[in-house]
Design brief:
Helices cover about 20% and strands about 25% of the residues. With about 270 residues, it is an alpha+beta fold. It starts with 11 loop residues before the first strand and ends with a helix. The relative contact order is 0.19. The longest helix has 17 residues. A hairpin with a 4-residue loop joins strand 11 and strand 12. It folds into two domains: about 150 residues, no CATH class; about 80 residues, Glutaredoxin (3-Layer(aba) Sandwich).
């Protein structure tokens, strides 16, 4: 489970599944897959990468939110108004890879986060959801599902697993989120950036890879754009960007600069444990 973030939001973060053995990388340019992401109005996200392209993921992802947030039923009303999809296939005529990326207008602002999760710079096209996505209608669900309008700092990669079948003649499959148990060994981090340009995305990618591969503990990473949220920077006494803060465990640690020295970042983040 991991989270990378779009700096357009103050409450976006990365949630990592370490110490699960071997973090799962995003797809690369040679992969054929379908990627599906389901957001909540509050900004939480469940996504999947399906290389078989055979699963009804939207229903599964709704069930994930029901389980994780303790909802009375799956929030099917989120589909398609809060979804994004990527489809990469091989053109049989040209043998070239083709990719189509679409996102509902309500979630287009998360495209930098989606690019990190799905592994490349994609051109996101707005999906035609105007006829079915009425914000007034969607808001009527808030009383029944208030958790969906809260930001729990969740981005969950949902994976298909195949357990040992009880009946040797029958293969069954379950769907299980890669979520570690809550651990006091986890980290709470904040990354302060200025704007959402290519420099910010480069920092996010490098930090995402470093933390997934080397931190070895669950963490949340909240990304804050100081241009849009100067009050957060003032509250944490941040005067330069990029600044990476370790909020938990205490004492608070700060790393200011380009975040290029992986060894120094890990040494500071893991000190005083």
């Amino acid at each position: 489970m991991r989270r990378a973030a779009h700096p357009d939001q103050a409450g976006t973060s990365m949630l990592n599944g370490s110490p699960i053995e071997g973090s799962i990388p995003p797809p690369n340019a040679s992969d054929l897959f379908k990627g599906i992401a389901l957001f909540t109005p509050g900004g939480d996200l469940v996504y999947c990468i399906d290389r078989s392209k055979q699963s009804r993921w939207h229903l599964q992802l709704c069930s994930v939110f029901q389980e994780i947030l303790g909802l009375s039923e799956p929030p099917h009303f989120l589909v398609p108004c809060y979804t994004a999809t990527v489809d990469r296939w091989l053109d049989p005529k040209t043998q070239a890879h083709k990719t189509v990326a679409e996102a509902a207008p309500l979630v287009l602002r998360h495209r930098a986060l989606l690019n990190v999760l799905f592994g490349e710079e994609l051109t996101w096209h707005p999906a035609d959801t105007q006829e079915v996505c009425d914000l007034a209608v969607i808001s009527t669900y808030q009383k029944q599902f208030p958790q969906l309008w809260e930001d729990h700092d969740l981005v969950i990669r949902y994976e298909k697993t195949e357990p040992l079948p009880l009946d040797p003649g029958k293969i069954t499959a379950t769907w299980s989120p890669m979520i570690p148990e809550t651990s006091p060994q986890g980290y709470v981090l904040r990354l302060f950036v200025a704007g959402s340009g290519s420099g910010t995305e480069r920092i996010l990618r490098k930090l995402h890879n470093l933390l997934d591969q080397s931190l070895r503990h669950p963490y949340t990473l909240k990304v804050i754009d100081v241009q849009k949220h100067p009050d957060f920077a003032e509250a944490d006494q941040v005067t330069a960007t990029p600044t990476l803060m370790r909020v938990w465990p205490v004492p608070i640690k700060r790393i200011v600069g380009e975040l290029d020295d992986a060894e120094t970042i890990l040494r500071i983040l893991t000190a005083d444990r």
